[in-house]
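May I ask you to comment on the folded chain given beneath this request?
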Amino acid sequence: MASTWDLLIKGATFFDGSGDLPAVQDVAIREGKVVARGENLPAGHAEAVVEASGQWLMPGLLDIHTHLDLEVDVEPALPEVVRHGTTTVVVGNCSLGTSFGSQKTGDQEPIVDCFTRVENIPKAVLRKVSEKITWDNTGDYMDHFADLPLGPNIATFVPHSMLRIEAMGLEASVSRAPTESELVKMETLLETAMQQGYMGLSTDGLPFHYLSNDPNTAKRIPTQFASFKELRRLLKVVRNYDRVWQTTPILENRLTALLYFSLTSGRLFGKPLKTSALSAMEMTAAPKSGRLFLKVARLLNTWLFKGKLHFQALGTNFRVWSDGIVSPLFEEMTATSQLIAREYDDVEGRKALMHDPDWVALFRKEWMHGRTGGDFASWKTRHGFPDSLVIRDAHQLIFDGAPISHWDGESMAQVMERVQRFKSGDETAARSRGEQTAFEEFPAILRDDADFMLHMMRRYDKTFRFYADIANAGNKATLDYLLDDQALPGFNDSGAHITNMAFFDSNLMSLKLAKERDEATVARMVHRLTKEPATVFGLDAGSLAIGARADMVLINPNALDDWEPDQTRVLEHREIFDHKQMVNRPKGIVASVFIKGVLAWANGEAQEALGRDTLGEALRAA
């Protein structure tokens, strides 16, 4: 007799994504869908049986904020995602994406020009992405995934910066307001995309997102030139389809940010607008700001405003690496932003700038701003409301790829203290011949960490690495943010900042933190990482109900106990980019991943079908 089922998973502790407590159940799969659930389902009716006693079975996880549109066309399997149990990814975030094609015009390369500095990705890598593009409209973009050996499912926003470029051209989009006909064209393109199943519109308001093309290196990306009126018109289209607005706050002006967030209001604009904003986390420099964001959401979501605003939550510590000064952190300072704006290989240009007296004065002023102790800016810093969020305290900047190997793991403050002792005549401060040589190259007078950093940049350019935990340090408050009703977990930024971040693991850390509390919290966390975001974004995912698509993951819960993500983040050369990338390689946590019922990952490695077969698909918003 022919097998009734293609696959039977037996004896797992089954979390169905609803938030209910788990039960030990068997789950049967046929033709990529869940067809039976229960106790003691007969193994003889299945072509393949997986014994899963002691493991957690749950829907595949959703990564709700990625920039994997930069990777999916060069490696459609997205193995770094799948290894973490993620089976659906969301792209087109922060107003950036590839859904309109390359949009090249003359010497303008919008994908390169927009992504390079915002997501800290070298131009050579981005051109590898651009070379793969064969479409020039949103419909063909959505359709082309069917022809790829796609690993996880993919869902996408219409990126506002690219929408403006499509209607206006890149140069016009950052130099003037749109004409009425251009606004109408944007509305028409957006309406078409909504009909094609796009999830909504993404915009951006962060003040340190700059273009990388001359003569516009001092200008921000196109979305930030849009007026409130433009956004209101475009978001009316999104609102009419009950889709989602993904955005980041306008940090420079809290009142302006509140005005823009009010666009979620059904009371003010006729119908609530689902709004997904960055970000809910405990910032190191401003620990109260995350709670403030959640209070804003709570207010706007009351009956008074009838909003639908949530803030995306990161499930791990926000550790960011820097290659010299090249990091998203240092775009916030004018002086260091000018360095980053130089071409990647323009070492001499950066050195010349760093020896310009006016630039040095600006750098010192910005580096020490709010840190001198005797002014209003310092008072605001002490009370958790600094003018700048960039970490400049040498005690919090940790070497990890230092020019002297035994500096790794030390803070810049520790090294600086030895330099100062050495310069004062204590030759024993140098612990090796290499360190002595390095110390001799420092200026005779080293006043503070501004002088220390200036020397490091002048001497080593981008060849020294360090990190800082800019949020969720020690994960003391992370779980509370993840569980807050005004937040939504799943923010990973996967595929972005390829040498600076490695948050592919954030969802697994969310499960670890939940497990440390109790089983009910795990059940709620599974819901928050699966069915809840799928419902918010209107996607057919995140469930293992009868008839649901069989995207699922088996987790070894015991492997979560001793795992720390900081210990498994590595900088590794990836052949697809011919460049190094920060990745995360936890071992033993994700036992198996099934996409549409097909085994994609097991025993710590990709399975034969991943990268060979089309497993995932382009999910269209309902």
About this structure: Residues 47 and 430 are 67 Å apart (CA to CA). The two ends are 39 Å apart (CA to CA). The chain has two domains: 61-317+472-606, 326-468.
